[in-house]
Amino acid sequence: MTALQHARHIILRGVPKTATTWDVRRVLTRSGAHGVTNIHLCYELFKPTGEVLLTLSSPHFLRDNLRILDNVSFSASRVSPKPFIPEEAPRPNMRSRGLRGKEQAALRGALNGNGPHAGMSNLERTVTIWGLAGKATPRALAEVLQGFDVSESAKGRMNIIKIPLPENQFSMTSRFIVTLKTVSEAHRVARALHQTRHEQLGTRPIKAALLY
Fold this sequence. Notes:
The chain is an alpha+beta fold and 212 residues long. The protein folds into two domains: 4-84, Alpha-Beta Plaits, CATH 3.30.70.330; 98-210, 2-Layer Sandwich (Alpha-Beta Plaits), CATH 3.30.70.330. The protein is 25% helix and 27% strand. It is built from six helices and eleven strands. It has helices spanning 2-6, 21-31, 62-69, 99-108, 138-144, 183-193; strands at residues 9-13, 36-44, 47-56, 73-74, 77-78, 80-84, 115-116, 126-133, 160-163, 173-179, 207-210. A five-stranded antiparallel β-sheet has the order 6-1-3-2-7. The two termini are 32 Å apart. It comes from Laccaria amethystina LaAM-08-1. This is RRM domain-containing protein.
């Protein structure tokens, strides 16, 4: 009862992991949901979880939206809506940090790709790239990205960050996040790199996807 009285958020489960915020917005509009002010895709280790956190302008809209969304299908998949009260308002936690700050956060494990928007700002301008050799370096990836408009720091360093593995975990591959100057350039990088091989980055096909 407390959740229904005070909740201004809804968790949607069962959303296709390939969905974008625009896809979710279209489904909400068609369903007749109202009062939704923000849509937050949820991630774990920079991978979509299939959960979406909706923010409502008022708890007044909660009951009707739960009823409406309980009958909604998303790409033939039935979604499951639940009221939710987060400990704090969802927001990107890397908004005010430059390249150096993000690198330090990654080393501390704070940049872990978990939660709404994977904890990132610059959404749709940031591409996550994974499946690279474990020993791949930002410099090696920078060589592959020559010709793309990668965002740069004040000192001219390309905004490429290698994400360390969580403590006590091992992997033969590595993951990077790259921030581009424009949304269109981020889309171009994701299309150009996904399922390609590059000698500097290992022998396996790499994968690339935008963060939303």
